[in-house]
Amino acid sequence: MTATLDRPAPAATGGGLGNVLTDSVTLTGRSLAHWVRNPATLIASLAFNIVMVLMFAFLFGGAMAVPDGGSYREFLMPGMFAMTMIFGISMTTIAISTDVERGVTDRFRSMPMAPAAILIGRAVADMLFAVVTLVVMMLVGLAIGWRANGSVGATLGAMGLILLLRFALIWVGIFLGLVMRGQEAVAGVQTLEFPLGFLSNAFVAPSTMPGWLGAIAEWNPLSSTVTATRVLFGNPGWGGDSWVVANASLMAVVWPLVILAVFLPLAVRRYASLSD
Fold first, then answer.
1. pLDDT at 63
2. What is the three-class DSSP state of 30?
3. Model-level pTM greater than 0.85?
4. Where are the domains of the chain?
5. Could you please report the per-residue DSSP string of 172-232?
6. For this UniProt entry, which segments traverse the membrane (predicted)?
């Protein structure tokens, strides 16, 4: 005599656009709730950015030559806005790396939820914090004398370019968080953040650098965003004769799209192979 045992049906995979959206909202809420309960990381990030502004505005500003004798603080702030987006990479990387290291990501993968929602939820939460960061930085800029002299539409366009860069960099952070662990993740991100941030036109004219180094600075994606936003904000900035400087507004869109095209698929593939 044989007995037939009923096997439990496999858990739902969470497929479908509706499930992806629902699960993404849930996981975005998880990140926001975590920040509310443990705000120290966010406060430290905002404080670091504010201190950077105050240091450059009040300590180093007197030694900086501004193009055409313009306001140094108006020159400074577009570079600082973009720099804060660069420094946001570490927060994304560490959060992803911590979830993987503690087994949280494996638990999510074993649950009946859309796999894409785990990464989307992280990206949306970090974008919300990027918006908050940008608003805070703009308020700090206004407090020290920065002004957006362009139209309302141009100002919103500049903000859009800054946030587009941040969205692309989020996927760099997600990929690095999936690849690296612990202190390795922190060191790896800092190795990326500081050269990418300072080897640009944010604070120093590329024309003052050695030729090869100035070319690298001009082709830095951050430089295109800074140049384009300075124009849109109506703030002073460096000139230049190279193609990338002349087409900074175009490259401020192209560079983030290229970064997304590279790192979003890499992050998705790396996430899919975590259990291999």
1. 65
2. helix
3. yes
4. 18-24+39-57+68-272
5. HHHHHHHH--HHHHHHHHHHHHHHHHHSSTTTS-GGGS-HHHHHHHHHSHHHHHHHHHHHH
6. 40-63, 75-96, 117-144, 156-180, 192-213, 243-268
